[in-house]
Amino acid sequence: MVTGSNGKTTLLHLIESQLREKAKYSHHANSSYGIPFNILGLQRKTLTIFEWPLLFLLAPFKAFKSPPSQNLYVVEADCDRLAEGKFLASFLKPEIVIWLSVSKTHSMNFNSLESIAYEFGFFLEYCQKYAIINADNNLITKQLPRAKADVEKIYRKTSLKTYQVLPNSTKFSINNHNFSFKFLLPEDTFYSIQSTLFLLNYLNLKLDKSFRNLTLPPGRSTILNGIKNTTIIDSSYNATPASMTAALNMYKKYPAKIKWAILSDMVELGNEEKIEHQNLAKSIIDCRLDKVILMGPRTREFTLPKVREIAPRTDIESFLTPLEVLDYLKSNVKGGETLMFKGARFLEGIIKHLLKDKSDVSKLCRQELVWQQRRRKWGL
Fold it and tell me: Are 293 and 284 in contact (CB under 8 A)?
């Protein structure tokens, strides 16, 4: 089982690139609804409410299907709400747990970061044999007394030697291994790589150092060619405080002459909404961008004034809707800029209209029917 507030899907794909056909994987399913359906071989496709009756109708019949040929099930498990971690942990009773992060995702459903960590801690509590954790995260280590399994601890200081961002790849030097990935990966991906190495050692399987079979879902820093000879870095899948900071830290190291960042609101933060959008200002300023474009009421109310207070010379614009951002980009991009998109408020709808090759739409996230319908309402 892989779990945590962010980085789960990348970790799942790193593991899959190594285990391949030896395991079954819970793609597109990480919740108390999605995982049971995934086990039955059922999956939502359009994400509309009309799918639910058919899924519930098919479930009893799927329960009698033959089990998969693989004896390993690599499942991505989330905790979006109270009691979800306990339910999934007690339901799955995982032999192995990899837990690498705790951050403010879906924090509107929790009282504090400590309560989020406690919910994730049920995975440690129900882990049967072996757990791998990010030992640099104090919120995770505080839950270790609940673990009954053997625990492997990962420390950045002792293992990560170097991290390098190139135009179309990232390189990591971890202990005695050098890795080069044909993707733009944040530095925190180190924890996922290291945990994959520990997992392979536990399973007594050989490491493919090239990770040549690695693929990543859309919206995870995908590099695309844009109009007017621009480079688009599409990180539009989600926006949380931790993932925003990680993306901007990576972008700071990215070699480009002209860097623009298009950043949207972070949602589902509850009472933490104001402070986290204000904290975003520091990451923006540290990134040393040529232009910043904010989208949404939260970044306008909280992030924009904080940036102007700390660094008044920052070239920054703010818009409320994706269509306004698209119109601004079409009018103001001169050519040769690198545009990094980070967020979840229909940024993929903006990117769609900036692609040099329109067939690259297939590389964007949220192409299900329900998202297409929502984007149309926003004029995209």
Answer: no
